[in-house]
């Protein structure tokens, strides 16, 4: 029975990853066909698409009465993005960091994480707090779009190489629809399997959300960052993690809390939320030192993540 449940969980992971990729590619090409600039597409369609697995899983878990999986998925994904993705990508190759990332996106992520933690410590995410997170998301997106009115030729060329141009709107609409369907099916299978595994093994749903579900929904970001490093595009690797963490807090947790308020687990407040504050806070000095994430710094992030997960499962 457990083997079947694991198989269904794997199928859910595949559905989430494939669905997110289809939504991103189809949506990006449709947006470009409508004359939307590459930066705006990146800040909207691509960013939302890569956070779609976390959103689908979290809203599905909260809606079906599994709030620990919902909140554990968001916190666990952000921990995994910093610890595993930056850790692995930085070990493959030292990662230079752009000045814009250090001046805008990293401080925005740090501020958003502090706001998230402050809200979390009252024991519950209510609809008003969810609305505040969505408002921060809208303000940040509007700021980025205004700051990027004109893209330099390299950005346009990179976008064209990654997504290509198309005049087949019908095909891209079908691709987006199929991707959304895969996301829904994959999210349902993953949440149901995770709950069954937790109950069968006597493991808390929070731990399942922090580990199995969180790492699974971070697979698109991991694949994107590693491929970007191998292609010698380090800004994409680091920016992908920072942007994904921002969207997980603002575009995933915010709407989920608006739809259904989420109680906070005391265990999460003791270990994982402080750990997320520490790891996110370490990004600034780590990335700022020499404007590069070195191999030993990447190894430190990976080790810190392993310690957090070890403490989470031991206590």
How many domains, in number, for the residues? 1
Helix content, binned percent: over 70%
Note the main sheet.
2 strands, antiparallel
CATH architecture: Up-down Bundle
What average pLDDT do the residues reach?
Answer: 80
**Beta-strand percent range:** under 5%
* Overall shape: globular
Radius of gyration: 19 Å
* Low-pLDDT windows of residues: none
The oligomerization state is: single chain
Q: If helices are DSSP runs of H or I spanning 4 or more residues, what is the number of helices?
A: 12
Q: Give the name of the CATH superfamily.
A: NCX, central ion-binding region
* First-residue to last-residue Cα separation: 28 Å
CATH-defined topology: A middle domain of Talin 1
Distinctive features:
A middle domain of Talin 1, mainly alpha, 12 helices, two-stranded antiparallel ribbon
Per-chain topology:
Layout lengths: L1 H32 L4 H26 L3 H26 L2 E2 L2 H22 L3 E2 L1 H21 L5 H11 L5 H33 L3 H13 L1 H12 L3 H26 L2 E2 L2 H23 L3 E2 L1 H20 L1
Antiparallel strand pairs: 1-4, 2-3
């Amino acid at each position: 029975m457990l083997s079947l449940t694991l198989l269904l969980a794997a199928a859910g992971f595949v559905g989430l990853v494939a669905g997110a990729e289809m939504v991103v590619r189809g949506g990006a090409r449709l947006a470009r066909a409508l004359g939307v600039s590459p930066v705006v597409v990146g800040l909207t369609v691509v960013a939302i698409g890569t956070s779609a697995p976390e959103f689908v899983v979290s809203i599905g878990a909260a809606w079906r009465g599994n709030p620990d999986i919902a909140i554990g998925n968001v916190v666990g994904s952000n921990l995994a993005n910093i610890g595993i993705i930056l850790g692995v990508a930085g070990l493959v190759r030292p990662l230079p960091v752009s000045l814009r990332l250090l001046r805008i996106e990293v401080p925005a992520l740090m501020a958003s994480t502090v706001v998230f933690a402050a809200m979390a410590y009252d024991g519950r995410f209510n609809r008003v707090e969810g609305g505040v997170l969505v408002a921060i998301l809208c303000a940040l997106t509007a700021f980025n779009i205004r700051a990027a009115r004109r893209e330099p030729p390299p950005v346009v060329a990179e976008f064209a190489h990654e997504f290509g141009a198309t005049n087949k709107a019908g095909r891209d609409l079908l691709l987006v629809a199929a991707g959304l369907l895969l996301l829904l099916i994959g999210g349902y299978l993953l949440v149901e399997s995770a709950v069954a595994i937790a109950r069968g093994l006597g493991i808390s749903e929070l731990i399942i959300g922090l580990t199995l579900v969180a790492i699974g929904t971070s697979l698109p970001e991991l694949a994107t960052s590693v491929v970007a490093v191998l292609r010698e595009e380090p800004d994409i690797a680091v920016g992908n993690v920072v942007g994904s963490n921002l969207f997980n807090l603002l575009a995933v947790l915010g709407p989920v809390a608006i739809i259904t308020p989420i109680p906070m687990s005391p265990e999460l407040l003791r270990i994982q939320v402080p750990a997320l504050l520490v790891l996110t806070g370490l990004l600034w000095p780590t990335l700022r030192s020499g404007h590069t994430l070195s191999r030993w710094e990447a190894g430190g992030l990976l080790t810190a993540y392993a310690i957090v997960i070890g403490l989470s499962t031991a206590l």
